[in-house]
Write the structure tokens for this entry.
Amino acid sequence: MLRSLSVTDPNLIDSLQAEGFNAMHVEVSDPNLSALLEIASKSSLPVYARIRLLERPGLGDTSPTNTLGQLVEGAECPSQPLAQDRCLELCQRVAAQYPWAGLQLMGLGFRSFEGLPTDHADASFYRSICFCAACQYGYGAAGSILEHVAREAIETARAKHPTVDTMLLWRRSVQYGLLRQIHEIVSLPLCLHTAAELRYTGDRSSLTFEEAQGLAATCSVDPESSEDLARLALLPRPMPVYSTSNLAPERFAGVIL
Ligand SMILES: [Zn+2]
């Protein structure tokens, strides 16, 4: 079982093994990365790189954009070719940086807007459907219907229109395509952080474990409650799945704390 700790303080590395950890994770954006890797290289523990994909400061042409014209700040839409290129460059650069045990891919998905106190249950889902130029191109002829569906459903709860399933299917194909490209250019084992839930946007429209099979060696999840953990534990898991939250996951293959 993998028992890994996310390390930000280089001074902690020496005591990891004595505390029962058999691996460590470091954020590649950590300002202390050089110092962490220098000390980690002297340790016998495997080191995993945690990469946050599709993050970019501010607003820009690749920002997720909803039907109300609102942009998600600090993020990029995974269907944008330029954003995909940046993901590939980042993974390639990180992979060459250190003899990692693997790369943990965070945020490989569509971003969502925060829910509002006045929202009905599904409003934030519809508010988060991306209509950036690349997504609109991907929706094709269904795009104008979907836009109408999204605008109405933001205001009032209603039965799900079939174009929503089409959109979700297309989005998973985008995520799968990006994961496949990363798999092709990086020879290290990949760990896909996923919510393995298909209904919502944001992190919750991630690929399922089965969809990631063959491209990701492992998956990680971050269950928010014991109910969520139970739901995830019941899903088919063709690879080891790790929990990054502190809910004790007996039925999972390991724990990343
Ligand atoms: Zn988009």
About this structure: The helical segments are 33-42, 81-95, 123-127, 133-139, 143-155, 162-185, 209-212, 226-234. The domain at 3-62+77-110+167-256 is CATH 3.20.20.80 (TIM Barrel). The pocket of zinc ion is lined by residues 64, 77, 79, 130, 132, 134-135 (CB under 6 Å). The longest helix spans residues 162-185.
